[in-house]
Amino acid sequence: MLFRSSFRLSTGTQIRIEPGTLVDSKGNIVHGEVEFRVREFHQTDDLFRSGIPMDTRANGTDRLQTGGMIEMRAFSGKESLNVAPGKTLEVGLAGFRDSKEYDLWYMDEDADWNKRGQYTSDSNRIKIQMVSALTDSLNRMKAPVETDRRIFELVSNLEQAPYLKAFKGIKWRLDESQPIEFLEEQSRIHWEGVRITRVNKKNNLYKLSFTQFEKDDPEASKGIQKTVLARAMSSRADMKSRSAEYEKELAEFERKQNERREQLARAKREADLIQTFRADRLGIWNVDRLMKMEGCAPVYVHFDFENEGIDMKSNIRLFALYDQENSIMEVSREKWNQVYLQKGKAMRLIALLPTDQLALVDNSAIQQCMEAGLKEVTFQTRKIKTKDFLKK
Q1: What region does 286 belong to: left with phi over 0, alpha with psi -120 to 50, or beta?
Q2: d(CA 235, CA 216)
Q3: Average pLDDT, the chain
Q4: N or C: which end of the chain has fewer CB within 10 A?
């Protein structure tokens, strides 16, 4: 990512870097193009893939439970940059969970976690504004309104349905094959969508399909639909010209609507919270608290590794992923006799095998073990290639 004074990521994370903030190894302010690299970690899979340890050096049994972690690095060419003394970066880290009673941590020398500084947590106001604005823009037209027993006109808000301006002022006559009750009953409904399709060129007959979408869901593509046949009270030549304009305008309208739906979907995927702090150095920052090992019990674990005769003395790394707590723990081989499994909260076990594969134990198997109160268990594993897991 090229250096800019401020930028915003798809999660909602925002970073602001004032001029003169970044310096080289000699303390000189960097000018020109700077490469700024960012990685975010919000789920246990992110933590596992990163390889960043979540324990503290002060006490190897203390595990950090993250509310969001970010790694920031900057480069000028191949040279690694630093934050100038007295300067800071303003970071608004996306928060996908309530981080009450959490602290701000920094990984000193990329090796040990220590508390550093303060942060504040607030609503993602930009997301709220974007969702509101895009939702409003997706409100659909309201039509039709009855003007006579069998004669009616499509009345709509052309800002919301510009494709209907081609038929502005056109009066329609309900086909004799259609019950008059349609106009009497359905015309009082505020329809959000209408599609006009020619059925018979010679008779100037058209099919008008009216749609009412799910309330409070501007992204809906289907809904209640009513279709009626009607004749345009205009010449065929005039209707040909109007239809061509209508199709063009409708295509453009639908393109814009789809674009807004995609923007709205992206906005909704952003975090609801923003955790703001000042970073006086680059590296790895974490909104964390020490994990409370509630409901955990030590269990002596074994694995079948799908009966492929994997040497248990070989270099196998075992990780416990506490998904619900958003924490991860590596368990050394000599401590497999007391792997802490958590009852009633989602977690997984992943063994990194020397065969460039992962052996997985899912939450259901762990919960069965906990419900049975087992103190020792042999888990059946499911293997997956390491590269396939890492690229997800």
Answers
A1: beta
A2: 40
A3: 85
A4: C
> What are 274's strand-pairing partners?
94, 122
The dihedral formed by the CA atoms of 252, 253, 259 and 264, expressed in degrees to the nearest 10: 170
For tokens 């193009």, name the residue: 33
Give the span between the Cα atoms of 171 and 148, in whole angstroms. 10
Structural contact between residues 145 and 155, judged by C-beta atoms closer than 8 angstroms:
yes
Look at 383 and 173; give whichever has higher pLDDT.
Answer: 383
Cα dihedral sign for 90, 95, 100, 105? negative
CA-to-CA separations, 318 to 52, 303, 357, 359, 368, in angstroms, rounded: 15, 11, 12, 9, 20
List phi, psi (to 5°) of 7: -155, 165
Is the confidence at residue 1, as pLDDT, over 70?
A: no
Contacts of residue 286, defined as CB under 8 A and 6 or more positions apart, other chains included, come to 64, 66, 68, 69, 70, 104, 105, 106, 107, 113
Strand partners, 56: 59
Mean pLDDT throughout 44-53?
91
Residue 132 has φ and ψ, to the nearest 5°, of -65, -45
Distance of CA 16 to the CA centre of its chain: 22
Pairwise CA distance, residues 231 & 79, whole Å = 73
Contact at 8 Å (CB) between 38 and 25?
no
